[in-house]
Every structure is written in C-alpha cells, then in structure tokens.
Amino acid sequence: YFRSSDLIDMKKPIAVISMVRNDSFFANKWISYYGAQFGFQNLYLFIDGMDQPLPEKASRINCFQIPHLYLKRANADRKRAKKISDFANSLYTSYHAVLAMDIDEFLVLDPKIKLSLEEYLQKDFKTDSCSALGLDVGQHPKFEDSIDLNKSFLSQRKYAKVSDRYTKPIVSFKAIQWGSGFHRIKGKNYIIDPNLFLFHFGLVDKETSIQKSNDNELLTSGWRGHIRRRISLFKELETSSPFEGDMFFDKARTYLNKTRKWYSWNKPAPLKFPSIIKIPKRFQKIV
C-alpha cells in the first residue's frame, strides 16, 4: 500500500525505448500499450532497416528509421544495447525514468496495487534501476487457439514460465549501460521489484513462432540454437502441471534475487525447479 505522499514530483514523464526489425505482430501493440501508460509522445522506437515498413501507429510516437547493419547475433545484440543505452542516457535530464525492452516485452504492475504503472514508477526507488519478474507466455498446444490480435493477449493465454531470462532490469533511473538483450546492467547489481512483472510474448502464437523459426535471415546470423531452445517452451507447457501463480511468485523472486552464477553476478541464475504457472485472472485485460 502506498500513500499519495510516497509519490514524487510527477512533472517529469517516463520514456520508453525499443528497436524492431521484420515485425508485423508486436509493434502496434507495443505502441498502444506503452502510449496508454506513459503518453505516445514519450515513446521512442527505432526501425532497423530503411526497407522496413513503419508500424501503422508510427506517426503517434517518436519513430526513427535507421540503416540495417548485418552482424552475427552476439555482435548485433551488443551493438543494439549500446545504441539504446547511449540514447537513453541523453534523456534523463527530461525524464524521471527510462525503460528499454524488446518489442515483445510488456511491463505490468500487479493490479493488486491500486496505482497506474506511471504512478508506481514515479516513486523514489533509491536505486539506479529495478527488475521485474519475468513471465514467458506461450500458447498451450492442447488448450488454446491461435491469438486474436483484436483482443488482449492475457484474455487468451493462461500459462507462462517464470523465467530468469526475462527477469530484466528494464527500468532505469540514472545513466546506465545495458548488456545484450537488456538482461543486465554493466557493473550494477539488480533488485527484483515485488510488484512488477515483465510479460514476454515472443511465443504467444505457436504458428507465428514456428514460421519465425524458419526465417533465413535469423538462421544465417546465428539464431538457430536460441530459437530451438525458445520453442521448447511449447512442449514444456504441454507436459507440465502448472502451479498457481500467486503461490509461486514470492518463492521465485526470493530465489532469483539471491541466486546467481559467479561469472554473471549481476543477473539471476536459472530456476532449479519446475516453473510453469497459471497466470492470475486479474491480469486478463491489461495486455
């Protein structure tokens, strides 16, 4: 519970940044969702490639089309993280916080907290950044139909994997440098907020995901192994007995806050126990 006196001066808005290439699925939803949360004028989207069509709602936001530079996956990820970090660092004089994420990732405040996401992030966190608990949402192969883009994702998807990979420090309050994929902040520790979730929707539609797994550009640039690991979620959803999310979240946060590998001390280590959950119904209309 937070009192209004806990909120700081809300004159400075919150900025949101992403980059997209070869997408016809998520960009408009990203614009609609974050525009409603923080104002369309505070969104910054880089379109990677001069040949890329602009999203339908591009005119409502700050949209920059940049030349595409062909690189292998690891180098491309590092270059993208540096570009977005450097751009974010130019915004802090005008913004209270800057968020950066992949185009298929949606930051959500638990509806139990009776504040908007913007109001919540306007608090004084006394840290350089904060992480949200990662939920990797996928289409259940047996029980769920193809996604309808005209309806909320979470009204159509009931299951997710609690994931260290998507427990990302995407919220920043000071100048920082994100590592590849926004999985860590260089030289900084992480704190997982008790009320924030990062919903990753890359596998929200199985047919679309399988089509993408056969994309020649991705395969030739080094994404084959990553894609194979990612689509294994469908099998995991099909064969697992899910936990009730609310019975699992605190356990996962405690583990992920404390556990890390010695060679990657500033991001959480993978969970060592089954982590397929049912998404609580209170989230259904949010994204």
Q: What key phrases describe this protein's structure?
A:
287 residues, alpha/beta, eleven-stranded mixed sheet, 7 helices, disordered N terminus
Helix-strand makeup class:
alpha/beta
- Radius of gyration, in Å, reads 18 Å
Count every helix, treating DSSP H or I runs of 4 or more residues as helices: 7
- Secondary-structure element order, N to C: EHEEHEEHEEEEHHHEHE
Helical coverage, percent range: 25-40%
Subunit organisation of the chains? single chain
Strand fraction band? 15-25%
Low-pLDDT sequence parts: 1-5
Approximate shape: globular
* Main sheet specs: 11 strands, mixed
The averaged pLDDT comes out at 91
- Alpha carbon gap, first and last residue: 23 Å
Number of DSSP strands? 11
What is the element layout, followed by pairings?
Elements: E1 14-20, H1 27-38, E2 43-48, E3 62-66, H2 73-89, E4 97-100, E5 105-109, H3 117-121, E6 129-138, E7 159-163, E8 171-172, E9 192-203, H4 206-213, H5 216-220, H6 224-239, E10 243-244, H7 245-258, E11 276-278
Parallel strand pairs: 1-2, 1-4, 2-3, 6-9, 10-11
Antiparallel strand pairs: 4-8, 5-9, 6-7, 6-8, 7-11
Helix pairs in contact: 4-6
